[in-house]
Amino acid sequence: MSKVTNILFSAVGQVTTECHDLPVTPLQPKEVRIAPVYLGICGSDLHVLADGHPFAKPPIVPGHEIAAVVTEIGSAVTHVVIGDHVVVDPIMACMECRACKAGRFNLCEPPQVAGFRAPGFARSAHVVPARNLYIAPKSIPMDVLAFAEPAACARHCVNRMPQDAREIVLVIGAGTIGLSVVQALRIMGADKITVIEPDAKKRELALKYGAYRALAPGELAADERFTGVIDVVASAATIMDACTKVMAGGTVICMGVPSGTREIPLPSMQRFERDLLSSGMYIPEDFETVIGWLADGRFDTSDLVTDIFPVSDAAAAYSRAKESQSIKVLIEFPQ
Question: At CB < 8 A and 24+ separation, what contacts does 42-45 make?
Fold first, then answer.
């Protein structure tokens, strides 16, 4: 038996921490046992907690952003060893469908993602497929490594945007993902980045991380247009703004998770060949790339962690993450 601590969304709006004994089951040949060190709280976790997510409902063990240590490996695992520092792709892909065979595991249907339709990572020990692990240099602090998942989201999003659309870019929203998108745009060669964000502190961070301008909602000139727009909010208002602020021939990317259907100005989109794309999670290349960004300091996390809570204070951590002033709240598991 092994004592395991896990966080549970026990009901809508309710977070509990449980500690109980579980039998230690033998690993399958291609499985790995990990011990999370830091768990990041994502906006999508908060959607689940509030019963506002399209695919996941309480009760559920949440969590899909972790920095972890490998504690045991299966007999057929060769690319990781015990003690490795890793990030874990939370997509539990079937590996059999057309998308998986093309390496686009983010498109596997129905989506089996840790913390949503698959067991979450908010527990002190977890067994995952070895193929989901990405080894990180031990020079990266573990609280920095916890940003690999949101950074991978951002890199995937920007990589979806054609190069010519990155000339004059508008980013709507500057929370964790929006600020990560700003950094990915800068790293990947965007020329001018404008950010729309209601919180003044987050606007300051957008400027620090690569935007040349950060404005409050309503401050953008009515006639200003952009070669590319990334909507990290995906509300009815922001997706309409994105579609009306993009130049003819430009690209809009919906990065945020919409809570329902959205209206778009299809006549002008069609007539002027304005493309509307979406970005959903990431592929292996994204994790491999952003681990390099974190290792060499190109992706800066220094002002992104608002608070770190011990797992015993998980309920307080999720409450803090709901506050508009917070950016990234981490939960620390004892080692």
Answer: 42/149, 42/150, 42/176, 43/175, 43/176, 43/177, 43/257, 44/116, 44/257, 45/115, 45/318, 45/321
The distance between the two most distant Cα atoms of the chain, rounded to a whole number of Å, is: 65
DSSP 123: B
> Which residue in 216, 281, 205 sits closest to 42, CA to CA?
281
d(CA 270, CA 124): 50
Starting at the earlier edge strand, list the strands of the sheet with 246-254. Answer: 213-215, 192-196, 168-172, 226-231, 246-254, 275-278
pLDDT for 166-197, tens place per residue?
999 999 999 999 999 999 999 999 999 999 99
- Domains of the chain, each with CATH number or no CATH: 2-147+304-332 (3.90.180.10), 153-278 (3.40.50.720)
Query: What's this model's pTM, rounded to 2 decimal places?
Result: 0.95
